[in-house]
Specification:
Number of domains of chain A: 2
CATH class of the largest domain in chain A: Alpha Beta
Strand content of chain A: 25-35%
Shape of chain A: globular
Number of strands of chain A: 15
Largest sheet of chain A: 9 strands, mixed
Structural class of chain A: alpha/beta
Mean pLDDT of chain A: 93
Oligomer: homodimer
CATH superfamily of the largest domain in chain A: Dihydrodipicolinate Reductase, domain 2
Low-confidence stretches of chain A: none
Strand order of the largest sheet of chain A: 14-13-12-11-7-10-9-8-15
Order of helices and strands of chain A: HEHEHEHEHEHEHEHHHEEEEEEEHHEH
Distance between the termini of chain A: 9 Å
Largest interface: A-B, 82 and 82 residues
Chain lengths: 390, 390
């Protein structure tokens, strides 16, 4: 698949004089993190918020100084002062409300997981395309300045002549009693994909990023703990086979492995490996600090036999970006996406669909006791590329 | 299985006045690391070395000041000045030479992987037991002072009320052209288990350690790259199910996930997680330094919503042991094992067999395209417990 031109266009900057007016559909905790993070951001104005409860809408609007409040999502969609909507609803409601929003000519910023499956997501994207509105999901780290630095580093072969060939990631947090009783992310009728949709979405995305947005060939997943079919703890792996061989004649097979869980202490490590070096950072989803985001490269790794025993050594270089507010960076990117020409909008919906295709296959593998499962983009990816002329 | 009394006896100290006289069967690179590491060690005397090539035996003996040299392994086994043998031969030769050594009343220190499968290993252990000789494999980290500290830490519930529930590990190195052409570890007829036997042996072992030597219930493995059936790059996972639930009513399922490969840059990270905290170190197989071995605990992990965006924070404590020479510690432990009473010898062969049972199931899963595979100790573990009266 030739996705390169889409990537190049993804970061085009919209006309700075234009302001995008946004409506927020829902008052979930994650919406508060977004709104908190983008206060005072130029070029984006949050014009309205809607909730099924007008009281909740009012409280949310008061907290963030939002002028307009609605007690029904439909009413917000009819507001012609609004250019775009941000949808933090449970994934069970995504298909319905993305389609309705697109039909009301609103651009869509959608919480992950985008959909319960790729068929649903493609229906959303088709409707967006028919109505000439843009689509993006809310993976913050895609917009963090660190990722652009790392992208350049991976391209320069410092990890080895064949670039990165393995991505290990872990993203876990420990839910409390209230989380397991009430949160949408563990309820079969709301976010039935559990930690696969909520956490592995990031692990899949970082691997797709490291491997230039190629789709894996096969995946495998195990639901370590599940309840009513919703995974609470899982591990997964994905393989990118190829016909290429490395300098020693060994087949090059890129792969990723990840652990994602609602029942383990917070962790969000990434380790990207090539033949000759590794690249690591320990806060890939939510940075430890908004003022300092380090990442590390190890090369020239060697073993030494000393009289006291074996040791190993390496050169480690620390890199970092200074102050970075990834919430603001995401919303700036969304604004640019909205303001850009219509024919430059394939990248963001494209990576959502690639991620969702992996989710589908991982879920299928887990249902099949972890057996290797072929990721078959089949008609879905073909439809997407036609839709976006890529 | 009640393995606790065996664990308690594992570290009993032999009479300090006795010296164990050792014969080395083979001159492989790993043997040189051992001999280099134990020079001047009290209580162990390397009396002889054997190689199929007397020239190699002479060169090795000259380098390490070993008085006796043999051009045949059989001749070394007939030397009645020798109490114990160290066997660094390819795993294809382990069954033959461990059985012959035991029948010559030599205690056995065996390179990993112990065997091609658990049936072979049990045959070795039966012969050792019949001839009243001890058995131990060569996993250095088991003897490193750090592991005893960590064992105490894991027992005190600092990672959470249910103790450690996940172990993530990675152990990789990048072989060069000569490795892939000549090394026994990638040759189907010599070490056919490849990176499963050579590297995952450590990943399995550290998980068994963290989970109190319980055997997992199911495993899954994928051979990412293999050649002539020998895995060069693999990932694996193992699950310990239980009927217990945690404080939120969620089933407690302990698990491990690991990546082991001959084609990626050196890495040997361990991350042990509970509900409330994590324990990490980045050099679990070969320490970065013999003078300083750190490990880290993170607790009180929290997210903070700042005006600049989300951040997360934790308390991290650094622990470490000072100078530690794990090669010497392994050989001291082997000496103690040899000198101890005959009825206190179950722990070391027991953990070898537990590791090998996991290897068997992982290999079976990989052959079955990664499907969840039940680890069935069946008659093998039962035979072992009868053999050692545990």
């Amino acid at each position: 698949m030739d996705f390169n031109s889409a990537v190049e266009n993804a970061y085009a900057v919209g006309d700075p004089r234009n302001v995008v007016s946004v409506g927020v559909m829902g008052t979930a905790r994650i919406a508060r993190s977004h709104l908190w993070g983008i206060q005072g951001l130029e070029g984006v104005k949050v014009h309205a918020v809607a909730s099924r409860s007008i009281e909740k809408a009012n409280a949310f609007a008061d907290e963030f100084g939002i002028p307009t409040r609605y007690g029904k999502y439909e009413d917000l969609l009819k507001d012609d002062k609004i250019d775009a909507v941000y949808i933090p609803l449970p994934s069970s409601l995504h298909l319905e409300w993305v389609v309705k929003a697109a039909k009301c000519n609103k651009h869509v910023l959608l919480e992950k997981p985008c959909a319960w499956n790729s068929d649903e997501l493609l229906t959303m994207l088709e409707t967006c395309r028919e109505n000439k509105v843009k689509f993006m999901d809310t993976v913050f780290f895609m917009h963090h300045s660190r990722l652009k630095q790392i992208s350049q580093q991976l391209a320069n072969a410092s990890l080895g002549p064949d670039g990165p060939t393995h991505v290990l990631s872990t993203f876990c947090f420990r839910g409390d009693e209230s989380f397991f009783q009430n949160n949408i992310r563990v309820a079969a009728g709301l976010d039935k994909l559990g930690c696969l949709g909520d956490l592995a979405w990031y692990s899949i995305r970082i691997a797709l990023f490291a491997f230039n947005w190629d789709l894996p060939e096969t995946v495998s997943a195990t639901y370590v703990i599940e309840k009513d079919g919703v995974p609470f703890d899982m591990n997964g792996s994905m393989l990118w086979k190829s016909k290429a061989v490395d300098g020693c004649g060994i087949p090059i097979v890129r792969s990723t492995m990840f652990h994602c869980s609602f029942v383990h202490a917070w962790q969000e490590d990434v380790l990207i490996s090539g033949q000759d070096g590794t690249l690591a950072f320990e806060d890939f989803v939510i940075p430890r600090s908004t003022s300092h985001a380090p990442w590390f490269i190890r090369t020239n790794i060697d073993q030494t036999r000393k009289p006291s025993g074996m040791e190993w050594s390496f050169n480690q270089s620390e890199h970092n970006v200074g102050e970075t507010k990834q919430e603001r960076q995401l919303w700036q990117a969304f604004r640019n996406h909205v303001l850009n020409e219509d024919n430059k909008g394939a990248f963001w919906p494209g990576i959502s669909l690639l991620t969702q295709l992996c989710v589908d296959a991982l879920h299928q593998s887990a249902a099949n006791h972890g057996a290797q499962t072929v990721v078959d983009p089949g008609h879905l990816w073909e439809k997407f590329t036609k839709l976006y002329n890529i």
